[in-house]
UniProtKB/TrEMBL annotation:
One of its GO terms (molecular function) is long-chain fatty acyl-CoA hydrolase activity. This is Acyl-CoA thioesterase. It comes from Paramagnetospirillum kuznetsovii. CDD domains: BFIT_BACH (cd03442). Pfam families: 4HBT. One of its GO terms (biological process) is acyl-CoA metabolic process. GO terms for cellular component: cytosol. Keywords: Hydrolase. InterPro entries: Cytosol_ACT (IPR040170), HOTDOG_ACOT (IPR033120), HotDog_dom_sf (IPR029069), Thioestr_dom (IPR006683). Belongs to the acyl coenzyme A hydrolase family. Residues 11-124 form the HotDog ACOT-type domain. It comes from the Bacteria.
Amino acid sequence: MTESIEISSAPRGRLSTRAIAMPADTNPFGHVFGGWLLSQMDLAGGTHAYRFAKGHTPTVAVEGMEFHLPVYVGDEVSCYTEVVRVGRTSISMQVEAWVRRHGGDDRLIKVTSAIFHYVAVDENGKKRVIEQGI
């Protein structure tokens, strides 16, 4: 894959997290582990879901994860989130991961996206009705 591939022209949703990819997050080839990127995306989606549902919303599924381009050490990873579905007790978020290359220009490059599904639970871990927030 080449850097010239433009998956989308601009991020959708709100900026929910931003992190710098560090050497400890990479495989021997210098690419960030997919699991690290997945966890960053889950943090972003989970934070947005928590705010929206006004409470604990554990992840129950991830749908359609596909890595388009690698993430390298020093890249600034930004995760954007958008609510795509709200059910009685569940919420689904479109989460996109974009990078600004270390040492490059300010151009954002989309590296992956997926739909994350969360379920609202009470203090006993039982499903609860979502009271919509932000």
